[in-house]
Structure formats: C-alpha cells, structure tokens
Amino acid sequence: MNFDTNCLHAGYRPGNGEPRNIPIIQSTTFRYETSADMGKLFDLEASGYFYTRLQNPTSDMVAARLCALEGGTAAMLLSSGQAASFFSIFNIASAGDHIVSSSTIYGGTYNLFAVTMKRMGIEFTFIDPDCSEDELDAAFRPNTKALFGETIANPALTVLDIEKFARAAHAHGVPLIVDNTFATPALCRPFEWGADIVTHSTTKYLDGHAAAVGGAIVDSGNFDWTAHADKYPGLTTPDDSYHGVTYTERFGQGGAYVTKAVVQLMRDFGSTPAPMNAWLLGMGMETLPLRMAKHCANAQAVAQWLQTHEKVAWVRYAGLPGDKYYDLAQKYLPHGCCGVVSFGVKGGRAAAERFMAGLKLASIATHVADAKTCVLHPASATHRQMNDAELVAAGVSPDLVRLSVGIEDLDDLIADLGQALKQV
How far apart are CA 234 and CA 59, in angstroms? Predict the structure, then answer.
C-alpha cells in the first residue's frame, strides 16, 4: 500500500466483527493455561505477551504502522523521545565505547550524550554537520560504535546530508542513527538515503496534537551486525540473561537490534509507553500526511513574510531560496521542510522576549511540532544548560526564536505575528 493508505491501515487488520480501530489493551498482564506456555515466552522461543513493561499488543500494532511508514523491518515504541535516543545508543555501546554525533541536535539529546551517558563511560565527539568528509572521517576511532544526527535539527534547522553521513558510518563499519522527528516519514525516509536506524520523539508531529509523550525506534534491517561481530558482541554472541540466545542468529539481521532493545533494555529500564498513549499516537498518524502538508505550506508562507519584515534580523528555513540548506532540502525534503521556522528579532534577546509576550494566538510553550502554533526562546529553555560556545556549536544564537507554525488559518497566524512585532 502507498504511504497515505499505510497511515490508516498498516499494523492492524480487523477480523470479522472486530473493531475497525486499533483496540486499547489496557492490561498489565496476560493469562496462560500452563507455566510451560509462559516459559516459552521468557526463553524467546515463542511470540506473545506476558507483561506490558516489555510488550503490549496496542503498542506493537502502532509500532508496526510506523515501521511500515519508515520502510523498516522492526520497530518499538518507548515512553519518550529521550528514551528512544538513549536506547538507540545504549543498545550497541557500553562503557569504554565512543560515538560520533552531529553537534546541531536537540538540547536534551546533547545533554543526554555529553553529560549523562558520559558518566556511564560512553564518550561522544560532536562534529559540525557541515564539515568536510575528511573532517567527519577523522572523528572516528577504533572503538566508535555509531554515528548520530537529526534529519532537521531542533532548533538550528540544519538539514543533515544523510548520504555523506551514511558513507562515513559504513566506511568505519558502524550504523548511522537518524532522529527523524521534525521531518517524519511524510517528508523524508532516511533509510532510502543510507541510514540504518531511525528514532522519533513521537510526541511531536507523529502524534500531532500534544496529547501523549512518546518515542520510537525503527530498524531498517540493512546493517549487517555479523559482518562487524567484534564491534557488537551484544548482538552477535550469547546473552546469558536469556539462556544464551544470540540475537542475530535467532532473529536475523532485520530483527536482532529491536528484539534486543525490547527484551533486554526495556526489561531492565522500563521506559514503557502506556497503551492509551500508543493508541493516541496511532490515531495521530492517520492524519499525518494531511497535517504535514498544511504545516509546510503555512511555514513556508510565514518564513517568506518574516523575511520582508523590518523588525526581523534574519530567518532560517530550508524552504527559502538562498537558505544555507536550501539545496539539501530540495534533495532530501522535496515535499516540505516541516512547520518549524527559526528567526531573530532585531534588538536581541530582550526584543525577542517582548515579541513573544505580545503574541495572542501562538502560545509560549516548551513543546513544538503540533497542530497549534507555539513559540519558544531556546537559549532560555531547551538549551538553557549550554554555555555560549556550546550554543554556537548547536546553532542556537541568543536572539533565536523557534516558531512552530500550526495548521491554523494562515491570515490569522500572520496577523498575530504582525501585531506582536509592532510591540517591539
């Protein structure tokens, strides 16, 4: 089925007399006739459900839908996008290992990598995504386990050159992990450009209504873990916590990575999505292509309007001709560059704060990428933990305003922006 149809039907096919919508299986546990039947699940010899901390039918059906949209072979839902970022790395890296990451990533992800995971013994090297191929190649070490980036960076709006990053990752025998939150598979499918693993904060456009926090990981099934068995013993050697199962042998190239993340990391860390949240995500994805088209059209028009306003110092949106990432966007994002626009108000941080305070329709909110327009000053919020040098590396200037353009009427949006700018 084509993309728009998969948004509605992938992952669940009701039988005769069954509900048309994915059902909410709001249960912690599942009953079995014998201990032997349940034992097969614990030994990974049979598929099924016994405890929602690991898996739940509602979550799995919604994950299967997202898997189809991204064109992957296996997927899992998590309780948040932060959990997805953490699991995606920790599933293949441990103390003493090294990861290369784009520097222009979400502030929470940067803190997770640079501070929290560093305390766990995993070291990260952050590199400008616009670096040369030689500079990118030089960032790798013998103990590097992955390369990480964001399709459209939050909030710098850097467009990742996925093919360049994929070439570098594969030349060093590691997977490319791409956070596809801002683009969603409606605008870009990173697997088609060489990425191996995709992550999402499903809290954003996939849900679309700021109703449920969540995350997801999707595996392309393309990375050959066994070809680099020495780098990934957790996948290619027996797991003592599951009676010696070797994930690549039991679940193959397309299932080993996600299966390990579910039965090992989800078991131990418990970053479990609520079935109700999974259901809300599934409902949100049904309108994803319609919403993303409206988000992109509104954002393009707003960005063009801001460009001409006398009180706006600069505008960053990859859909604008002349933008630094315009050419990359034409390649990777031909259907639109999402609904997020970054810009600076003349007068710096103080002027930006006055502008935001004057908005009536748009909300000042930590959130981004949902149906209602919202605005944020990242240097004071999501990137507050960074020093000035780190802010510059992340593409966040002190005057940067992140505007998440919703799906309201365009004239109403521009009128609200206009009256707020008059107050600056």
Answer: 25
